[in-house]
Amino acid sequence: MIYADNAATTKMSDAAVNTMINAMRETFGNPSSLYTVGQRAKEVIEKAREDIASVIGADPGEIYFTSGGSESDNQAIISAARLGMKKGKKHIVSSAFEHHAVLNTLNKLEKEGFEVTLLDVHENGIIDPAEVEAAIREDTCLVTVMYANNEIGTIQPIGEIGEVCRKKGVVFHTDAVQAVGHIPINVKDENIDMMSASAHKFRGPKGIGFLYVKKGVRLLSLIEGGEQERGKRAGTENVPAIAAMAEALKESAAAISNVLPVISARRDRLIEGLGEIPHSILNGDPVRRLPGNVNFCFEAIEGESLLLLLDDKGIQASSGSACASGSLDPSHVLMALGRVHDVAHGSLRLSIDENITDSDVEFIIDSVRQTVEYLRSFSPIWRDLVSGEKEFIL
User: Is 323 an annotated catalytic residue?
Assistant: First the structure.
């Protein structure tokens, strides 16, 4: 099996698994309890907070534990919106190709009277900081732009956008779920006020994540109850998952300098090989993208058929975001890039890690080429294109 869908989820590392099991056995107490086993659990949480903070250049008190990226996005955006509203500011700036955890939260706020400006995405999948600055108004309370896109992998100029927001006095949030643990990030240097992350994207467990909130930026609680997480996230903490997340992040961050060039080289070979398939196109900038992300569209192909046939060959991939896999609509990300419906339906996302070998890469290229040719061989759309009855788009 060749697993090439790490953007959907990653396999937990051995170190994270062992840390989680050990915490289940040894520090099972309730961290809010005053007796010894409870305080040991509390110590595990605070050590994890310190470790995570050190990786992203934050202070431990700026890390809040959540159930994952979606909750972190919701809490960050709703907090900034509610607090902005108290100051008469009800305008939010974001982009058209954010994750649905952001877009759906913004839709909810629009129904409550907020105005949202979604910036257009250029064909290369990069947001222009100058356009962010132009969109900010006197009543803007928040700018939220994802660090790296979950489908096409393009990395945004976060430091520049953060600098614009700092200059304008606007809170800046970034959904960094796809970026944390895969590329170096320093929240202070990049002028980030709030940042979301999810453990299962960097070899940690599912159902746990964190939200970075810069000191001085207020955070509201979405879940009422106890005083956990300094009163900002009620509920008994998931000690084993928190410990495993910190271990996975430390491990991933330590390996970045060694694995990033290797993964990037294999990504580039995939881009080169798949680009040789006629009437195909790479989605997103070829260079400014996550080291393991490759996203292509193939004309006259249905993405779901391509995925099923690749699965038969032992290749696990996707056609877009796993969170939207039940939808029959074309990817909103690809549509934002300007892809037409017929082309957007034929997308393939490969997200590889360091376990993919050079021979795996060649096998993927050959398999995709053969499968595309097979599907086109009995496609009426392809027949019309080849005969000239319809014009090629790609």
Answer: yes
